[in-house]
Amino acid sequence: MTVHGGKLPSVLDDKPDFTGVVAIGSLAQPQQRLALLGGPGGVCAAMRQRGLVPDAKAFTYMLDMVAGTREAEAALLALMDREGVVLDAAFLNMLVSG
Fold it and tell me: In sequence order, what DSSP letters do the residues of 19-41 get, joined into one string?
């Protein structure tokens, strides 16, 4: 997905704003599909809007969908820290084995 301005839109928003989207390419990779949800931050924001609290299980699922780069994993860990989510064994096992 190519976005002008850098902010990923989210199809989970009540009123999604796709004005900055220049192109949507193949959605063959999990990280591309996650991008349509606004990335991990967009998923957490949508959960909070609906009265849900992101937990370690939600982040474990997202870890499987983020790009397998150190930067993407570090960004997910930083988001977990901001959300106050404690790492659990399942998440750490996936992180190490990934």
Answer: TTEEE-----SHHHHHHHBTHHH
